[in-house]
Amino acid sequence: MFQEVGTTEMGDLIINVGPQHPSTHGVLHLVITLNGETVKKVEPHLGYIHRSIEKMCESLTYRQFIYVTSRMDYLSSHINNHACALIVEKGLQIEVPQRAQYIRVLLDELTRIASHQLWWGAMAMDVGAITPFFHAFREREVINDIMEQTCGARLTMNFMVPGGCMYDIHPDFVKSVKDFMAFFRSKLSEYDEMVTNNPIFQARMKDVGVISKENAISYGCSGPVARAAGVVCDVRKLSPYDVYSQVNFEEALETEGDCFARYKVRMKEMNESMRIIDQLIDNIPEGDFQAKTKAVLKLPKGDYYTNVETARGDFGVYIVSEGATTPYRIKFHSPGFCNLSALDHMTRGSKIGDLVAIMGSLDLVIPDIDR
Amino acid sequence: MIQEKLLSICPAAVFEENTQWPTMNIDSAEWRKLAEALKNENDLAFDYLFCVTCVDWKTHLTMVYHLSSTLHRHTIVVKAKIADRNNAIIDSVYNIWATAELNEREAYDLFGVHFTNHPDLRRLFLSEDWVGFPLRKDYEDPINMIKL
User: Does ipTM surpass 0.90 in this model?
Assistant: First the structure.
């Protein structure tokens, strides 16, 4: 699979980046063809963390398969679980109690903030600034503590189940979230001072890795990558699930399609997530946190598709059911996979140093791509 | 309305009933012609291919394409039946939707579907010397057990 490092007849240099390389954020392997310092071609080699999750799910019941999905996009594990819970609820027409819907959306948005915080730190580190990483992790730690308090896990949460949530929230949940919001609000302006307004950072990001609106659509990009190119694609707006239809928030859109536009979209999204949390946190209704469901779940024969907006984009679950207790075929459409497929297009013609900035701005999570 | 339009392009297509989105079943030979119409006709304009997958029905394979239009905001599901499981061939649509290139490689890797005219049809996740196609229903591998 590795290509020999060497020079082709055309005088091009072929180098391997990864699978163990700090800027790939995981086991991604890229074979890069270089002409001097200019990138001619980027070819991703995948599969270093391929676990065949889709095949595994074919022998797991509709209650069990949800837990595997936390291991795909581990930075959006709540949101992945949410998608799986939604598809089972859709198939069995389960009415989810209001309280559970509120809790789920709150946790989704906290997850999104935590994911974007990590990305922000890593993004700055990729272009040479070390300090922001520690700032980001300090703030993210508070969310991790809230997650631990709520569901016992800090990374691979398994909290959302068909019909609602597994447990009720911790008695201190509302207070912890409010404390975090007050704390983070002051920090977010620091983020702008430290990184966003930094001229060196902007010079590294502007007009780098440009993708047009048409190409973003053609490559199937979603999430901040597509929205930075002006594609209206927020699933929370287009087909709202749970209580997203009742909250006010704006879809973050930019038109430049470069790394800095992707950066701005994610920064805006953190603000919008906080806006959503503000609207919900004081109004969590009383009642059940889980609907009554049968012990054994069987989806009626047919096919089902549900998508949600994770921190990386449009995550879809496609289930073909034959009426048994396990899915006949399950497909996870991961946002990172399509965003990665546009990497070659974005990088061609730019310098090798920009490749790292472009990859950082795509916010790839490799287990999500490999599945 | 869309249904009539699509039937005029593919008279042999069969629409499923009671589905989330209009779902049409076609034969794999008609896929390329239909795909071009879906992308290029102004009132269809399906420019966003958001899910490409394959289903093994033991007797035949089915490629499932989920498409939507960012212009008209409508969605369609196309199921292309590949009758011969041992010699599964379907046209590639990588030059209609760029995302298909990598997604078709995935389907080739895990299901053994050959996409004609695909520029770079190789294994994607598994190594080059891997034997068999893991997501097929008759795939057995006693060493790397993926059934739980």
Answer: no
